[in-house]
Amino acid sequence: MRVRRRTFGDFVMAFLAFVALLVLVVGVPGALAVFVGWPLPHGMPSQDWLTQEITVQTFLHVLTVVVWLAWAQFTACVLVEVRAAASGVGLPGRVPGAGPSQLLARQLVTALLLVGATAASLTPGLSQLGHNSGLEGNHKGTVAAAQQTPGLLSPQQAKATAANVAEQADHVAAQARSDGGKHGATKFYRIQPPEGRHHDSLWEIAQRHLGDGRRYKEIYELNKDRLQADGSRLTEASLIRPGWIMEMPGDAHGGELVEMPDTHISPAAQKQIQRYDRSGHHFHQQGQHAENGDHASVPAQRQPATGTATDGDGAGQHAQQHATASHGDSSGLPEALVGAPLLAAGLLAALGRRRRQALWQSALDAVGGRRGMEPPTPTGDAQNAQDALLVGADPDGVRLLDRSLRGLAAALAAESRPLPVVYAVWLSSGALHLQLAQPAGKPPAPWRPGQEQTFWMLSRADAERYDDTDTAAPYPGLVSLGTMDDSRLLLNLEAVPGIVSLSGSESDRAAVFASVAAELATNGWSDRMTITLVGFGTDLTALAPNRLRHLDGVEALIETMEAETRQRRGALGAAGHDSVLTGRTGPAQHTRWAPHLVLLAAQPSAEDALKLAELAADASRLGIGYVVGAETGDLPGAAWEMEITREGKLLAPLLGLQLEAQLLPAALQRAVVELFAQADPERDPDGPATTPPFLVDITEQGRPAVYARLVGPYEIIGLDTPEDERSTLLQEALALLLLHREGVHPRVLAAALWPRGVTEDVRDALVERLRDWLGTDPDGSSRMRADATGRLILAESVVSDLDVLRSLYHEATQGKGAGSRAVRGRLLTDALGLVRGPLLEDRPEGRYGWLGHEIVDAQLPLLVADIGLALSAFHLEKDRAQKAIEALEAALKTADSDERLWNELLRAVHATGDPDRLRARAADFLSRSGARGLPPRTEALLDELLPTWREAVAAAG
Questions:
Q1: Which of 489, 625, 635, 798 allows an S-S link to 493, with CB 3.0 to 4.6 Å?
Q2: Is-cis flag, bond preceding 446, omega within 30?
Q3: Tens digit of pLDDT for each residue in 141-167?
Q4: Which residues, by range, are in coiled-coil regions (predicted)?
Q5: Which three-class secondary structure state does DSSP give residue 591?
C-alpha cells in the first residue's frame, strides 16, 4: 500500500493557507505600523498622564496593544506547530491561553504542509485532516480500548456503531481479498494525535489494519520496549504516544501504512523508520547489522512476533498463560483470589465479622461461663483460600473507594447538585476515574475533570485526605469485572439501562457470576442491598445471609421482580424523586434507596427473556440491575453484551473492553463457603472447639528455649536483640508466627510485613534471617521449619505467653484442674497473673496492620473474661467474696465491656452484704455504659439484688 497522492485540491488548500498565514503573521503587524503607529508612550508616563481625559485616540491605542498581543500569541502558535510538524515526533507544545488561536494555526500549517516533502501519513494528525474515507472514516470513535484512561461506550453509542463495525469487517475482508499476495514488505504506522474525543489506540489500529481489534497484542509484541524517537519506550498496550512509529504484522493493510523502502516519503522520515526498524529483535537475530545506521538494509518480509492467531488467543499465548497459572498454583494459593484485591478484602472483612459474631454469641449464650473459645482451624482448600485472601486483600483500596464516593456525594449535596449517573469506575494505583453517562459539569474539589467531559478523576493523594462520613453510599452497585493493564474496572450494575448479558461456556459464566455475587455481598462501599441469585450451582448464602437470596427458577424471579418494580415505581412517585440517586443524597438521604441486583446465571427462554427485558427497561431509574447468562450474545433486551472466553478474557468489543476477568471458579467457591460455614454461630450449638490448637508443657520441665510476652508490652526472652535496622521486622514476623501455630505461608508473611508489596528475594532473605535469629534446639533442629505445603512453623521450644495462657485455662477446666479443686485454683490464678494489658500494647505505629484481619483482639478479652469468671466461681464456692471481686476486677481491666463480668461482680459485691458498695458499683457500670444505659440482663439483676438502685443512683447524680 502506498501513501495517498497529492491532488489539485491539496495545492489549492495549501495556497489559501499560505495566503492566510502571510496576512496574519506579516500583514497584521505591517498594517498596525502603517495606520496606527507606535501605541505606547515614548517616555515614562507622569502622574498627570493618569488624570488626562480618555479620548478616542487613547481607546484606539489600547485596542492596538491588545491586537499586538493577540498577534504575538498567534505567531508563537504558528512557530510551535511548524516545528512539531517538521519533526514529526509527539504532540505540539501548548501555548498558554491560546486554545482557539493554536487550533487555527494548526489547521493552516497542516494544510500548507500537505504538499511538503513529508508524507501526510508520517506527520501526526495530517492523515486524518479531511481525508478519511472508507474504513477509516467510518471507524472513528467506535472502539477505544487502549486510551490513556480506559473507557466504555454507552449503550446508545454501542448500538449506533454496531452497523459500522459490521460494515468495516466486510470492507476489510474485501480489501484483503483484493490485495492477494501483496504482503511482502515491512509496514509501519505512526500513532496519530487525538482529534476531538477520538484517541488513537492499538485496538483501533488493529481493527483498521488487521481486521480484528483483538490482534492489538501482535502490534504490542512487535514494538514492546523498542526505543522511540522521543527517547521513550512502549511498555503497556494502553500507553501509546502520538508520533510513535509502530511496526505492523505482515498482513496489515490500509492507506495510512507506509512500506519500506518507499520513495514517497522524505529521506529524514526514511532514516527515522530505518533506525526504529533496527531496534527490533528480529534484526539482531537475523544478523543483519549494518555499519552505517542510515543505510541499513531492511528485511523484505516480517512474520508476527507472537504465535497468536487472529482471535488473539493462539496456542503460544495459551501455553504461556497455562505456565503462569501452573506457577501460581505451585505455591498452593489460588491466584483468582490473590489477584482480586477488592473481592478478597470484602470476603476477609466479612469472615472476620462472622467469626467475632460467633465468639460473642457463644459467650453470651453460655450459662455460668464457657469452656473453650477456639474457632476451627481451616485445612486443605479452605486454608489455601484463607491464605489467598490474606495475600490478595487490599483494605486500603476499599477504604479509598468508599470514602471518595461518599465524599463526592456529600460535596454535591452541599452544592444542591444531583448525583451524576456513573456507568463505571476505573481504579488504578495513581487515581480514581469515574465514567459518567453524560457530562455533568465541573466536579467538586478535589475531584478534577478527566480526559473527556464524561470523566471525573481523583488522585490517590487527594483521596487519602477524605475522612469517614455518614453520607449514604452513592453507588453501591459497583462491582469488579477485571483489569485492563494496571486499571481495574468496576461496572455500576444498577445504572445500566437494560440487561447486561454474559455469554460463554457454562463453567466460565458461573465463575464470573460467583465473583460478582461474592463481591456485591461483602464489599465495603455499600450500605444495604438485595442480591437475588438464580441458577447458581453453589449456595453462596453463607457469605451474607442478609443480602443474598436464592430463587428456584426464572418463573419465581419474574414474579418477584414484577412486584418489586411496581413497588419501587410507586415509592419513587410518592417521594417525588426522578430516580433512586436523588433519594440517596440531600434532604431525603435517610430513605437510603438500596439497590436490588439480579444475577441469572442460566439462560432464560425466549419468552422469559422478553419479560425480563420489559422489566429492565426502566430498571436503572429504580436502582435495579440485571445480569443474565446466555450461550450466545444475542439475548433480547441486552443493553451491554459481554463474553467470557475459556482463557479468562472478558470481551465487549462494542464497549471497547478486553479485560483479564475476575473469576471465582467452582472449587474456590466451595472453599470460601466452607470458611464461612465453619464460622457460622448456628452451626455448632455447643460453641467452638474446646481444645486450643497448640498446648505447651506448663510444668517446670517444659521451660521453653524462647519465650515471647505478647499480652501487654512485647518482650522476647531467650534471644539476643537483632541489629537495630532488622529488629522491627524480625519481631513482627515472630509475633505473626506465634499467633498462628498452624503455620504461615511465606506469601502471607510477606503481605503482612510489606502491605505495599515486596520482591521474593527480599522476603526469602528475611525468612533466612529469622531462621538464623531463632537458632536451633540442642538436637540441632531448626526452631523454624517449613512443612510439606511450604508454610513456616515454629518449634515447640518457641512459646508465647498467650500459648501458656490458653494452656493454663485448658488444664484448669478440662485437665488436672477438673478433678482437683486446689490445682484448678492455682492454675487459674497463674493464668490471670499473665495478663499485663492488651495484645502487643506497645507495638510501633504504622506496623502490625495485619492484626486488623485477626480475631485475636476478640479472643483475648473473652479468654481473660472466662478465666476471671472461673476464678471468681472458685472463690465464691468458699464464700471468699473479696477474692472473687479481685479476680473479676483484674479481668475487667482487659475485658471491660464483657457483660458477664459485670453481672458476676454485682453478685460478688452483693455477697459482701454491703448495699452502699453495691450502689457504687451500679453507678460505676452505668457511667461505663454511656448513653446506651445498662444492658437488659444487668438491669434485671440489679432489680433483683437492690430494688432501690435506680433512686439511689439518680440521687447521687
A1: 625
A2: yes
A3: 333 333 456 666 555 555 554 444 444
A4: 871-898
A5: helix
